[in-house]
């Protein structure tokens, strides 16, 4: 699939509040935030789910976490804490089939998640 929602955001065909961008990674505010800071961090190439991550994507997936670290620092959450999570398929609640790391912070987060 070459036309998922997040590819449209990358191409600026769908508006988003973009807060971070590199050649390979984009991050923008979630439309339906679940915490004071709720950011989605995505690769600029289409990878449908975690199940579709290959060895060749290992460095790219690492860069999603590096983006999370940088964004958390920018929003002064490095020390107070934050969570990153990536859903995979139906039971997890994945609704957009282009892998994305949720970065949540700005409040105490319950555990375990629902
Ligand atoms: P997931 O359930 O893990 O697939 O997460 C998909 C996320 O994308 C949800 O948290 C949605 O609120 C968010 N979302 C859906 N459409 C948009 C959009 N156009 N801009 C920003 N976030 C979106």
Structure description:
By secondary structure, the chain is α+β, with helices and mostly antiparallel strands. Helices cover 20% and strands 22% of the residues. The chain has helices at 5-10, 58-74; strands at residues 18-21, 25-29, 37-43, 82-85, 101-105. It contains 2 helices and 5 strands, in the order αβββαββ. The longest helix has 17 residues, at 58-74. The chain starts with a helix and ends in a 9-residue tail after the last strand. A 5-stranded antiparallel β-sheet has the order 1-2-3-5-4, with helices on one face. The structure holds adenosine monophosphate (AMP). Adenosine monophosphate (AMP) binds at residues 5, 14, 16, 28, 30-32, 40, 87, 93-96.
> What percentage of residues falls in helices of 4 or more residues?
10-25%
| Number of β-strand runs | 5
Q: How would the global form be characterised?
A: globular
Instruction: List segments where confidence is low: pLDDT < 50 over at least 5 consecutive residues.
Output: none
Strand content: 15-25%
What order do the helices and strands follow? HEEEHEE
Q: What is the overall number of helices?
A: 2
Average pLDDT score: 97
> Strand count, sense and closure of the main sheet?
5 strands, antiparallel
Work out the radius of gyration.
14 Å
Tell me the strand order in the biggest sheet. Answer: 1-2-3-5-4
Unique ligands: adenosine monophosphate
Q: Alpha-carbon distance between the termini?
A: 30 Å
Strand-pairing-aware structural class: alpha+beta
Give a brief outline of the structure.
The protein is of the alpha+beta class and 114 residues long. The protein contains 2 helices and 5 strands.
């Amino acid at each position: 699939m070459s036309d998922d929602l997040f590819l449209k955001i990358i191409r600026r065909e769908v508006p988003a509040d973009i807060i971070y961008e590199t050649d390979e990674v984009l991050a923008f505010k979630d439309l339906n935030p679940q915490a004071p800071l709720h950011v989605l961090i995505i690769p600029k190439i289409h990878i449908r789910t975690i199940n579709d991550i290959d060895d060749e994507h290992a460095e790219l997936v690492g860069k999603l976490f590096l983006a999370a670290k940088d964004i958390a620092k920018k929003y002064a959450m490095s020390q107070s804490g934050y969570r990153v999570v990536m859903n995979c398929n139906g039971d997890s609640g994945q609704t957009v089939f282009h892998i994305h790391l949720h970065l949540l912070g700005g409040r105490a987060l319950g555990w375990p998640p629902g």
